Prior knowledge:
The structure holds 3 protein chains of 3 kinds. By secondary structure, chain B is mainly α. Chain B contains 9 helices and no strands. The longest helix of chain B is centred in the middle third of the chain and has 31 residues, at 96-126. Chain B is globular.
Amino acid sequence: MQLVFESVGHAYGERAVLSCLNWTATAGAVSVITGPNGSGKTTLLKIASGLLRPASGRVRLVVGNRTLEHGAVRREVGYVAPELGLYDRLTALENLAFLAAVRGQRQSRDQLVLQLQCFQLGGSIHQPAGALSSGMRQRLKLASALLHKPPVLVLDEPTSNLDDEGKVLVRKVVREQAERGIVLFATNEPLEVTEYGPQVLRLHPAGAGAGP
Amino acid sequence: MDPKSSASIRRVLALVRKDLLEEYRARYAISTLLVFAVTILVVVGFAAGMDPLPGHLHSSFIWLVLFFAAVTGIDRSFVKEEEKNTSPTLRLAADPDVVYAGKLAFNFLVLLALAALVLPLYVILMNPPVKNAPLLVAMVVAGVWCLAVTTTILAAIVAKTGTRNALLPVLSFPLLLAVLTTVVSGTTMALEGAGFTGARQELQFLLSYSVVMLTVSWLLFPYVWND
Amino acid sequence: MSWKYTLGFWFFLSIAGAFVYAPPAMGLGDLARIIFFHVPLAWVGVLAYLVAMVNGVRYLKTARPEYDHKAAFNAEIGLVFTLLATVTGAIFARHTWGMYWNWDPRQVSIFVLLLIYGAYFALRSSVENPQRRARLSAVYISLAFITVPFLVFIIPRLYPTLHPDPILNAERRINMEGRMLQVFLAFLAGFTGLYAWIAQLESRVLRLRARFKR
Lengths: 212, 227, 214
């Protein structure tokens, strides 16, 4: 399984954030994306997850002998990012149930509760998402991103507001996902970069190049 | 029904249920709509005083209230997704078709609820002669349906602009002018006692307008919804 | 260069023709001369709208920014011509029907066109991101376009018209005196040429701006 970026470029108005990026993320190992603020990490992740159409170039997901393009990639991705909100008025369980139903999954209530328990949210099933702490929200986002068992998991600084327990959880999730699919992991923590190594993409402001 | 379309109907219903649940808990849309509708109604009532009004003025007032109440609040359905940053979440989880159908259904329900509250209130306060009540209801439902079809895609546009100023009335008026004039004349007929056969042309017009608008909105919605 | 002088010469001849060569129309007298300006202005207003809409659709298909620029400047030109057509129409209305504005079907139609242009620019000015602005405004102008046939169907049924017959009337016969028709057609060609000239200048400005940016 491979996620292939072919000469991907993007600009917001006049400001170019990515230009002509060629890169391949493969299954079996974590692909770490790092770079200073403004180097286009989030833009790259948005393009990878299909939220944003690149101004130039294309992204393909190759699974066996099948190739998926932009619009179809979106369904195969679980994406966790600060700019992806939750429905504050709905409870944790309702959030999960809604996202499953609107994706077309048929999940029983027990399965959903189990998923929440796996992410240490068993005690706050019926709390409105707006009343959860930022760490718990982050875990709820992970739970909903992984509910449909996507082949591609895209994480944008997933540990930035998690406690140690949460960081352990993320590590476990990332390891498990890397065994069966692709993980894109954007971070600026040097420790995480070395930990998940060796597939590292270092982005530079206004331009990009693949790392060693 | 084949399994594929019943599956997409289930997705649409999930979205409608979610919106109704949020609406029930927060009253994003209906509170704005209702307060605005009642305000215009009272202003109109004061202006008209106790004089009996001719039918076409009554129907103009009814649609004045419904149109302006609709365009002040109906964009909430999309704006709330942008404000709470849930629109990218929804965009990843659902196809644009599902989102469009769900939001249209939700907006139609909200506007129906608005009309169901405003119309009796208008009859009580302004005392118009209602000679053909079934036709009046049919006209209001048809007109509200055309309002919902037109404002749903425009609300999606307004939510993407980020300015949140009163753009929806400006955008929707030129598009809805044909609907408003037709539905006003149809409502006048209902008040003055015409039968369904007399108002057939009006109903056909509203139906064909909504079919055309729905089809084109369906085609164009992905361009609005996706980045 | 040659455009400018050809158009200038053409308009000089047409204006002279409008006041000297063409006879006053039956019933309306000298007032009828305003149609030489009014009708071609309205025609360009509608034509520019069509061109803007077509460019909007092309933008949606290709996502190439030049189509969006074309849509925007055609709408700008169209707005100016439509405004002028409305004003000339109101002057005519004042002197024949006694009021500047009397909700004649054609006044309503051109007013809706003005509203659509106005809403289009209100929408454009409220979006920051250029790609998004291009997409949203292209969608809007296409949506507005499909409501036009409904208005054309509905408006004449609402109010009786006092507006003079269209140039081609119901019997498909040209209802205009020969010399008046010559001048009228000269103006129609002249204003269309003026529109084409402005549009071509705008395209050149766009091309130059794109080149200097690089």
